[in-house]
Amino acid sequence: MKNFSEIAVSKFLDGYNCAQSVFYSFCEILKLDKNIALKISSGFGAGMGRKGEVCGAVTGGIMVIGSKYGRGEKDDPAFSETTYRKTIELMDSFTRQYETCLCRQLLNGCDLTTEEGRRQFKENDFRNKICRGYVKSVVEIVEDLLNQP
C-alpha cells in the first residue's frame, strides 16, 4: 500500500496539478469522494489558476486541513481556530524550507500565465525537478500536522 507522499507524487506525475495531487492523496482518510476532490482543487494549481500566487501544493494542504478540522454548519467556532493554527503551521514550515510560499518565486519567476512561461516550465522539466519536491514536502508536513493535537 502506498503512503500519502507516494500517492501524491504519482498523481502529480500522471499530470494532475499540485493542489489536486496533495488533496487527492488524503481522500481515503478524510472519507472524501476522489473525483469531487480533484474537481474542487483543480483551480488551485500553479499558484491559483497559473497566477503564481500561493503554491498549489500548499493550497492543497490547506484543503486537507480544512476538510479535517474546518468549521461546518452548526460546529463550534473553535473549529476555525484549529484550522487557522494548522494552516499557519503548514505555511510557516514550508516557508522555512523554501523561503516562500509563492509559486512564481518558487519557480524563479517563471510566468505560467504566458505561453513562453509554460514552454519554459516544460522544457526545463520544472514539474519533475522543482514541483515534485514541493508536493512531497507539503504532504509530509500535513501528515505530521494531522498526527498532532
Can you describe this structure?
The protein has 10 helices and no strands. The protein is an all-alpha fold and 149 residues long. The longest helix has 21 residues, at 78-98. The mean pLDDT is 97.
Topology of helices and strands:
Blueprint: H1 4-13, H2 18-25, H3 27-30, H4 34-41, H5 45-48, H6 56-69, H7 78-98, H8 103-106, H9 115-123, H10 126-146
Helix pairs in contact: 1-2, 1-10, 2-4, 2-6, 2-10, 6-7, 6-10, 7-10
Tell me the series of helices and strands, N- to C-terminal: HHHHHHHHHH
Share of β-strand residues = under 5%
Beta strand count: 0
> What is the alpha-carbon Rg in Å?
15 Å
Structural class: mainly alpha
Round the mean pLDDT to the nearest integer and report it: 97
Globally, the shape reads globular
* Low-pLDDT segments, ≥5 res: none
In short:
This protein is mainly alpha-helical and 149 residues long.
List keywords for this structure.
mainly alpha, globular, 149 residues
